[in-house]
Write a structure and sequence with these properties.
Elements (H helix, E strand, L loop, with lengths): L1 H27 L7 H8 L7 H36 L11 H15 L3 E3 L4 E3 L1 H23 L5 H21 L2 H11 L11 H17 L1 H7 L3 H6 L4 H23 L5 H13 L4 H23 L14 H14 L9
Antiparallel strand pairs: 1-2
Helix pairs in contact: 1-3, 1-13, 2-3, 3-8, 3-11, 3-12, 3-13, 4-5, 4-6, 4-7, 4-11, 5-11, 8-11, 12-13, 12-14
Length: about 350
């Protein structure tokens, strides 16, 4: 037990150090070459040689860095919770159609509603309408998945939801304007640079609230590893836990999807990466390590996206599968040998 605890502390400390190094790298490296001494001057509050450099560091690299860190943690926490609840190593917000639901909500707002949500009580336009559309879409699909999971034991039936939402998005794209389709396609490539410095507080607050709910679910998630009936015998209110899961996963998926687009593989791969590093399914250790590993992987992906420099920025969803797919392939190959949900 002592040896296990020591291993967990080592993993935690290593990931924390890695995050610090990646944060520094994201602030100092980018598509525009800024001398290191100038970046230090800008971060210390002094004026840089060029005003454009100050704008790039504070208005682009800094919010992009914080966004990647929080987004990676949010997606990873969502994947971990869904994999535990469904006892399915391949469950995450995209596989189960939750990201597709959020994307459908955004598509309805951007392609059908012209960027506006209007009711008899209120009218929302601009970015907050996109957030609300993504949240409602994510929550609606997750609620449907949770309801069907209690009636249908086949995961194939649940995956059909994702195909239905994708089909509806295709229909909206067909009838939308060329400008609307282009905007939606660019949004769908994924980008941690979609959060401005002014939007960063709202994004951070919503994400942190969702992560706090996820941390509060650590104890019931551990009980669910033993099965729903055993968890109920331990005093766990399964319906209440699922409602909180709905709130946390829906909020985290909606916020990350609306601000950054549908990001693939991070939520699916990182929980497995954390389990492989720890060798345990105990959420007391697994949840914090998953959050750190998700933040670190997202920062690494963001760094790789800007490597071409002045040649351009690589779309985020072109990078995440390269890093996440090998982990999933390893899990599938060794699924019989690796016991995750016990």
């Amino acid at each position: 037990m002592i040896h296990s605890d020591k291993k967990h502390y080592v993993v935690f400390g290593t990931l924390a150090l890695l995050i610090v190094l990646l944060v520094v790298a994201n602030l100092f490296l980018g598509s525009v070459n800024i001398p290191a001494q100038e970046v230090l001057r800008i971060l210390s509050g002094e004026e840089a040689e060029k005003a454009s450099w100050t704008f790039i560091v504070w208005e682009s690299r800094f919010p992009q860095c914080i966004t990647a860190l929080l987004c990676g943690a949010a997606l990873s926490a969502s994947g971990l919770m869904l994999q535990t609840v469904f006892s399915n190593p391949l469950a995450d917000s995209s596989i189960l159609g939750i990201s597709s639901g959020a994307s459908l909500g955004v598509a309805l707002v951007m392609l059908a509603g012209g960027g506006t949500i209007a009711t008899g009580v209120f009218t929302l336009s601009g970015f907050f309408s996109v957030i609300l559309g993504a949240f409602l879409g994510a929550v609606a699909v997750l609620a449907l998945v949770l309801f069907l999971s209690s009636l249908i034991k086949s995961n194939v039936m649940l995956l059909i939801i994702g195909y239905i939402t994708s089909s509806l998005i295709s229909l909206l794209n067909f009838f939308a304007t060329a400008e609307g389709v282009h905007s939606y396609m660019v949004w769908g490539m994924g980008n941690f640079g979609g959060v401005s410095l002014e939007q960063l507080p709202a994004f951070s607050l919503l994400t942190v609230v969702g992560l706090l709910v996820a941390v509060m679910l650590i104890k019931p998630l551990n009980a669910l590893l033993l099965g729903p009936r055993y968890a109920e015998n331990l005093g766990v209110n399964i319906r209440r836990v699922r409602n909180f899961l709905l709130l946390a996963t829906g909020l985290l998926t909606a916020v990350t999807t609306s601000f950054c687009g549908p990001i693939s593989f991070i939520g699916l791969a990182v929980p497995h990466l954390a389990r492989l590093m720890l060798g345990t399914s105990n959420h007391n250790s697994l949840m914090p390590v998953t959050l750190l590993a998700g933040g670190a992987l997202a920062l690494l992906c963001n760094l790789i996206c800007v490597l071409p420099g002045e040649s351009g920025v690589i779309p985020l969803n072109a990078v995440t599968p390269i890093l996440g797919a090998p982990v999933i392939i390893y899990v599938i190959i060794n699924q019989r040998r690796i016991q995750y949900f016990n």
